[in-house]
Amino acid sequence: MSTPAIKLTELRKSFGAVEAVAGIDLEIADGEFFSMLGPSGSGKTTVLRMIAGFELPTGGTVELSGRDVTRLAPFERDVNTVFQDYALFPHMSVVENVEYGLKVRRVPRRERRERARSALSSVRLEGFESRKPSEMSGGQRQRVALARALVNRPKVLLLDEPLGALDLKLREQMQVELKQIQRDVGITFVFVTHDQDEALTMSDRVAVFDAGRIAQVGTPEAVYEQPATSFVAGFVGTSNLLIGSVAEALLGKKGTFSVRPEKISFAEAGIPGTVAEVIYAGPVTRYVVDLDAGARLTVVEQNQRTGTAALAELRGKPVHLTWLEEHVIEIPSSKENADAL
Amino acid sequence: MTVTTKGGGRQAASFLHRHPKLRLAGLLSAPVLWLVVAYLGALAVLLISAFWSVNTFTGDLVKVFTVENFRTLFTEQVYRNVALRSVGVAAAVTAICVVLAVPMAFFMAKVASPKYRHWLVIAILTPLWASYLVKAYAWRVLLANGGPVDWLLGGPGNGPGYGLFAVILVLSYLWLPYMILPIYAGLERLPDSMLEASADLGARAGRTFRAIVLPILVPSIFAGSIFTFSLSLGDFITVQIVGGKTQLIGNVVYANIGAANNLPFAAALATVPVAIMVVYLIAVRRSGALEEL
To answer: N- to C-terminal Cα distance for chain A?
Structure first.
């Protein structure tokens, strides 16, 4: 493999007594769409800010394309950022916002205009050049922020929860568009999010953050199908853990296991339990089932039954569950897992 | 629970709830009375009396309409000089306050840790709690011939002494907090991410300051300047205390009320700063400064 676009070594950051990032080693390949996923306070945004240069690490190094930039200022790094609040300059028009980086770098006026226009058209904002940011919707501002960063053709684009402020429909649309734009321009994207769907949908690889460390790095499939810790199993999807005596009774094995809710189905015979709750959610229906053996599992089924009234009648009824043996995920036991339980 | 408190107060409250106009009247009648009678009334009297005159023999008011006062004002060179000098002093004070306030406010809002921010605001406000006269006289002592300022500059006569420069210096000192506070408020509303975005796009601190911070701060600076400019324009005490022979509109008005006993002419003179301020407010209104007050 060639030199990674980003290489983090033993990266640490403390704010007073609080250790926000507790030693991170990570390599992100050139042209990759890489997501950093984790709950708020897990250190993912701090890592992003250290790559951008807004925070100085307490320890460790940041390398961009093999160059150590750990102590360099933001304006000395070949990265650009899309901020969570977009941070558009309110006194400048859209095209002035997009041109700003080029103007600072003394790109001649003609070329500046041309590149700004083509960046705006790549985010489908032709004709908005002379508007002020305050005259645009959230989704449009988001695109301006994207164009303003992309126009500089950075090696790496950092995105700090850029879709967080958008409504669901727009967010799903932007997920697809972002992915397309990334494929078109071929720039490395580092995308910070707390939304697991977003991370799984868009990324080539995902790093799951837990309390200032990376719990797992892998493809979306690997993170979802083979979670490395019970934290990952719980944060990425619904975990349905089978532990200790329950695992022994049902699977005949000791340890920690997980079965994803969509991999479980109802059957005439199988593992007995009682329906504790039925949750109607449009395209799917979620059932919470108390197993006679002691665990509580969530089951997700395509919505093919009729009516919420019929569903409500299922509450309290005895049922049987089955799943395929290959869908049982064994979660490697570690001290951390033992703590989490 | 409110249900338990029955009685007259509750009945009155529910009566008012059903009659919103009565509610509004109760809220506003006292302040409106104050505004119309005491505030606008006084201004009206000022304007009207500017068109009266004084009998030069008896010193009595002659309540007959005449534009004589304004004719004197516009034709006599000395009054034009006084007006121009006053505007110059107000402009200089405003400029000095901006130059001092912007870095101070930037430090308070963006550099100092949030823990100390409130203490810094209090530190800026405390001079306003001390009497204006005390502060002006303190400067009189400082600037006296052979006083501390002279001594700091190497001996008697080396300091600026009393005069125009002293007036500008002391007024800048007095009104500085009125400039710092709106700029501080403007900077507090400026998100840090805006500064980070500028650095991220390749700009060094100086560029970020000129291209991003300053343009966004313009309305706040104008808001502060409304205070420093108008307060300087109307001042007559500082001029008397440290101004030496300097004549500004304020103390010429004062002299006409006292020594010259020409109230109508004083009123006519007093309309000059009012007119200047109206022009100034109209000029800065377009920048959005009035929303920053």
So the answer is: 39
